[in-house]
Design a protein that fits this description.
The protein is of the alpha+beta class. Helix content is 42%, strand content 12%. It has nine helices and four strands; from the N terminus they run βαββαβααααααα. The protein has a four-stranded antiparallel beta sheet. A hairpin with a 3-residue loop joins β2 and β3.
Length: 226
């Protein structure tokens, strides 16, 4: 297993799937309670929430921790509480989630907004809705609402899109309508699946300098034998 890279102040794209891709949100109340628990623990552990999308059998979160342990603590308690709730309801025992959530450190300059868009367009790619604002279980409808709720943290790149909420929303709406370019979509998807960095060569070099070791992007499959 690849060790997770968690750095304070940086956004992290986190994905957790149901065990064997099983449904983790069979009812509306499951979505509501998971989200309420997420908001409770983000506050408790000092984690900023930039974007989220709850799908039927997996979740996408864009989180920025104030401490190195913040994301791990949040995800452990979040998954545990949801599992206990579902097990009580279904009168069963055992795991609900994959044993290990996946995460990718995101370039906050060049890829933060790209990850927000990737996450919030998930229901559109899945054919559930035609407009991401219509999906009730993502941050998109809150971001583009007349007043964004205080619990959804505005990331610095979003704030830089305009001088006020109305201006920022117009620019972000156009950004969403562009869709995710295929190369960018593959980079983001592969990065979180493989626990790699979401960013380009400059970002890899910068993070390598912070960690004191080179950061290399691995391709698919096993390394070629020398």
């Amino acid at each position: 297993m690849t060790a997770r890279i968690i750095l304070t102040g940086y956004p992290h794209h986190v994905v957790q799937r149901g065990h064997n891709r099983q449904t983790v949100f069979p009812q509306r109340s499951d979505y509501e309670r998971y989200l309420a628990t997420l908001l409770e623990f983000k506050q408790q552990y000092g984690v900023k929430l930039y974007a989220y999308c709850l799908m039927t059998n997996h979740v996408h979160l864009l989180l920025a921790p104030a401490t190195p342990a913040g994301i791990g603590q949040l995800m452990k308690r979040l998954a545990g509480r949801h599992t206990r709730r579902r097990n009580r309801h279904d009168q069963r025992s055992g795991t609900l989630w994959e044993g290990r959530y996946r995460s990718s450190l995101v370039d906050r300059d060049d890829y933060l907004l790209a990850c927000c868009r990737y996450i919030e367009l998930n229901p559109v790619r899945a054919g559930i809705v035609g407009d991401p604002v219509e999906y009730p279980w993502s941050s998109c409808r809150h971001r583009l609402a007349p007043e964004m709720p205080a619990w959804l943290d505005p990331d610095p790149c979003y704030l830089a899109m305009g001088e006020n909420d109305k201006a920022r929303q117009a620019v972000y709406r156009a950004f969403l309508d562009e869709g995710v370019p295929s190369a960018q979509r593959e980079l983001i998807r592969e990065a979180v699946q493989r626990g790699q960095l979401t960013g380009g060569p400059r970002f890899s070099k910068d993070i390598g300098g912070v960690l004191g070791r080179p950061m290399e992007r691995r391709g698919r499959g096993r390394p070629r034998k020398k």
